[in-house]
Amino acid sequence: MNIATILDMAAEAYGPRTALACGGERLSYDELRRRAQAAAAAVRASGAASLALLDVNGPAAAVAVFAAAYAGVPYVPLNYRLTKDELGELLTRVTPAYVVYGPEYRGVLEACAGGAAVGGEAFLRLPAPSAPPEPAEDPQAVAVLLFTSGTTGKPKAAILRHENLMSYIVGTVEFAAAAEDEAILVAVPPYHIAGISAVLSSTYAGRRMVQLPRFEPALWLEAARCERATHAFLVPTMLARIVEHLETSGRAAPETLRAIAYGGGKMPLPVVEKAMRLFAGVDFTNAYGLTETSSTIAVLGPEDHRAAAASDDPKIRRRLGSVGRATGAVEIAVRDEAGRVLGPEQSGLVYVRGAQVSGEYRALGAQRDADGWFCTRDRGFLDAEGYLFLEGRADDVIVRGGENISPGEIEEVLLAHPAIADAAVVAMPDEQWGEAVAAAVVLKPQAQVCAAELQAWVKTRLRSSRVPQEIVFKDALPYNETGKLLRRLIREEFAAAERHAA
Amino acid sequence: MLKPGARFKSAVCETQVMVVKSPPGEHDLRCGGVPMIGANDPAPANVQADAAFAGGSLIGKRYVNADESLELLCTRGGAGTLSLGATPLKVKQAKQLPSSD
């Protein structure tokens, strides 16, 4: 079992079809396979133990995914926004690596010793080998190593084996299901799990990938129009920026778009509601997944979106804020801290089980229990029909005097205030309670509100224990480039302020 | 014992399959009415397809037995019918999931 089979099948069934487009460049599935096989031969000849990519989204990223598979080494896409020192440290963990780099990252690489390095352009033009490499068939071989963002300490190297990714694709995508005119706009970076699964899913479905090296709402709309994109995958912040751009520019949504999938973070309700109005007739899908689960494990589909948006029943209406139901390829359960399975509406830790779930890190090993269940560290609950609602990361829970408080519910209430554009709730150290609730908020342009008014706003809607003891006003909240809120930074600020005050 | 990930090819046509899942035990996996062979094994001489098993296999389709405990992915299509002993395997119904990435 090897994910190279995905490309072999695509080339066999629809080889001349366009596999990807990026700027003026186009590759068919046949060409993609030829280049991946040529690159695999070069990787093997170099004796490298991994194929690392230090580049923005583009043809080299798609070629590298499959080249690593043909060569039988892990594919290691690196975050090009990291510093020289950080990248150097990561590269020593996968050495000797064959590094493919974009032109702007050449300087960064010079500082890193060991292995071979080749520019992205040259990587796409390697000579064809005399015989195509025979990929290894070990299902347990490592296909992808992805470094987690490392918000607490050293980044962990998540392991995805060929059997995990192949199970994901075979379990959730129908082969050759895409019509010939279908094209998906991919704007997530290659080092995000969705960037990897996009390559595998699109190839298996036969859906042309339109790769966007960098995300900007105007560039995205331009590419959607030029390439007549029918599908798109976005992280929530990207969709929010597109919605904002359409509203302020008065431009119309691209008319060829039929489906937008989003995931990779919490989607604010107002954004998805606005998006559904601006992209009338477009199918929206919320995909929930983790790196450690080979991407998607739950899906809120287009019919779910429409039914929820049109319903007056609060139980159905609230599903717009849910991540949907488990795909047929995995099981999902919610358990308490002691591991007992909880019933509907009871909130606890989200567990997942299935062949696509690796739940495994280098050095730490598999984090699955004896029955194969992996704890996502996300908190949430299921409704009676199996719709999953997420409440935030377990590690972000505020423990105030023994009471567990999820930041999510307080953030939702703050965001509902007419003056608030963005809000983050975190724990701050407190002598009396151990931890107390603190909030950082961003006001809408020209809006005004004081801390006391916001505290009263929360108090009338939630219990008094949920009222933020401290509220700071900020120009913006810190997010990483794929839209994950960096709570750690906000927590550190409150902790530092507290130390200063004491 | 058919291990998930194991690959087999037809002895009499172009068909190739990969095991997605399989119950324990021995299984008489055939294509074109003739036992399938390992993906890298040389094709045996003097074997002929059984004309009763010439319904063909299609690339990308998943083939299952009656209780769906055995599932194969067809990685290359061919002229022979996939079967377990003399019982033809059925095409598993297509997935109805919306595209999510």
Q: How would you describe what is shown here?
A:
The complex is a heterodimer of chains A (502) and B (101). Chain A is of the alpha/beta class. Among the domains of chain A are: 1-7 and 15-160, Rossmann fold (3-Layer(aba) Sandwich), CATH 3.40.50; 330-395, Luciferase, domain 3 (Roll), CATH 2.30.38.10; 397-501, ANL, C-terminal domain (GMP Synthetase, Chain A, domain 3), CATH 3.30.300. Chain A is 33% helix and 26% strand. In chain A, the strands form 7 sheets. A 9-stranded mixed β-sheet of chain A has the order 2-1-10-9-11-12-13-14-15, with helices on both faces. A 4-stranded parallel β-sheet of chain A has the order 4-3-5-6. In chain A, strands 16-17-20-21 form a 4-stranded antiparallel β-sheet. In chain A, strand 5, helix 5 (106-110) and strand 6 (116-119) form a beta-alpha-beta unit. In chain A, helix 10 (236-249) packs across helix 11. The model of chain A has no long low-confidence stretch (mean pLDDT 93). Chain B starts with 6 loop residues before the first strand and ends in a 10-residue tail after the last strand. In chain B, a hairpin with a 6-residue loop joins strand 6 and strand 7. Chain B is mainly beta and 101 residues long. Chain B has no helices and 10 strands. The model of chain B has no long low-confidence stretch (mean pLDDT 94). Helix content of chain B is 0%, strand content 32%. Chain B is globular, with a radius of gyration of 13 Å. Chain B has one domain (7-41, 49-91). The chains are: A alpha/beta (502), B mainly beta (101).
